[in-house]
Amino acid sequence: MVTLNGKPVSTDDLMPLALTNLGHFTSMRVDETGNIRGLTLHMERLVRDCKVVWGADLDTGRVRDYVRQSLEGQSRPCVVRVTVYDPKVEMGHPADADEPHILVSVRGAGAMPPAPLRAMSVPYERDLPEVKHVGLLGALHARRTAQLAGYGDALFVGRDGLVSEGGTWNVAFVDQNGTVVWPQAPVLPGVTMALLQQRAEHKVATVTLEQAKGMEAAFATNTSIGVRALSAIDEVEFPTEQAVLTRLQEAYLSVPGETL
Question: Alpha helix locations (H) across 200-242?
């Protein structure tokens, strides 16, 4: 079931979201106990992005209530997505929309971590990269391009030649010294990335595509996959059985979940 402000959503409610594609969201993995890693950070993201997109405050207590309601009777683990949009938004007058509503949907969660991922570098820069918004055309077109070429997903490279992030994930690398390197670039500040940065030694630095391909290992992160090894970037293969990657996976799984 998908709900809007705690009630079953109607087709009419969804039409503005489908036709204008204006809104923002966060996705959270709910573990077997019903807890969520990084819940506080997810709520902070929703509040922050609501200010940017709608110029409005967001009551995270309401968000938690609606999420709890939607999780009743759901199998776990699962992924719950909270989308914030205004059903009154019109394409011609988006500035008139300032009463965001809360859409909650739930889907099953896959194994964590998934099998290693082969990524293809694609030139792309997201609009408002600091906001987790619903405007996914560019990212999904890049992903489709990569998949049609035989890869699993796209790795974005900006006009400056710097690596930024993946289709729906942050990326990081392990250099020759065993140090985790997060790209310094306009990217979505991922919750999983933030949790890992709190628990593992790392540095933030600009990474060109050539430098990325010269790293010892690479991995993707988001709430659904945790830490997922990259097995290739373009034609360059990476080892996926790396001690650093194993430690990062264990570090992430050790993060205690928060109760709704």
Answer: 209-213
Give the Cα separation of 74 and 128 in Å (integer): 33
Closest CA to 25 of 105, 122, 96, 112: 105
For the stretch 205-218, pLDDT in tens is: 999 999 999 999 99
What does the pLDDT average to over 117-132? 97
Smallest CA-to-CA distance from 99 within 109, 111, 87, 108 is with: 87
Task: Please report, rounded to a whole number, the percentage of residues in the chain having pLDDT higher than 90.
Answer: 95
Q: Which residue, 13, 26, 19, 14, is CA-closest to 53?
A: 26
Instruction: State the SS3 of 79-137.
Output: EEEEEEECCCCCCCCHHHCCCCEEEEEEEECCCCCCCCEEEEEEECCCCCCCCCECCCH
Residue 1 pLDDT more than 90?
no
> Which candidate, 188, 180, 119, places its Cα nearest to that of 154?
119
Q: In 10 A of CB 223, how many CB atoms?
A: 25
Task: Please tell me whether the overall predicted TM-score, pTM, comes out greater than 0.90 for this model.
Answer: yes
pLDDT average, residue stretch 138-145: 98
Residues 248, 21: Cα–Cα separation, whole Å: 35
Handedness of CA 82, 87, 88, 94 (dihedral sign): positive
